[in-house]
Task: structure prediction
Amino acid sequence: MTQNAINNRASEMSIGDVFITADTISTQSANANLIIAPNGTGVTEVANGITFDTVHVLKNYVTQTNWTPVLTFGGASVGITYTTQQGVYLRIGDLVFVEMEILLSSKGSSTGDAIITGLPLPVAANSFLNIRWADVTFDATYTTAVGAASLSQIILQQVGNNNAFIALDDTNFSNATNIFFSGVYPTS
Result:
């Protein structure tokens, strides 16, 4: 540490290669990394953001964090049980990187469109997420599925060549359906 005093009135301070002056933290080594670690919560929040140059600001960062996806049919989940029900997400600025897996042991008795609820952060603009599946039966002329992220949920839809998207529903699922998705969506 330099001879600068450490108190509320110090205008600048240097510790090793880290230099602090006014509202700027920098490294004194050319092309060195400066690491800002969260306070143990996995969340780093800076009121006005971290400026990387004179234009680009990062305001939010959340390290990999768990969340619990919930499958519903027609808005209900009566009798649905899971062998696996897990999700993780990472937030960098206004982007949420999300993964989820659901493996059913029973699809229950609810009926209607298939929706996964419980996204960890609200969706700012509708986005499509990649889905892998097992034991999902598609309607005639439909061959794959996508997840349409909207609000705080994922609407599961069927896709086919030259067909409009239509919802997957309880009739497309079995008691052993496995759904895995990953993707990125914007949040505010």
About this structure: The chain has a mean pLDDT of 83. The chain has two domains: 12-59, 65-186. Residues 65-186 form one domain. The two ends are 40 Å apart (CA to CA).
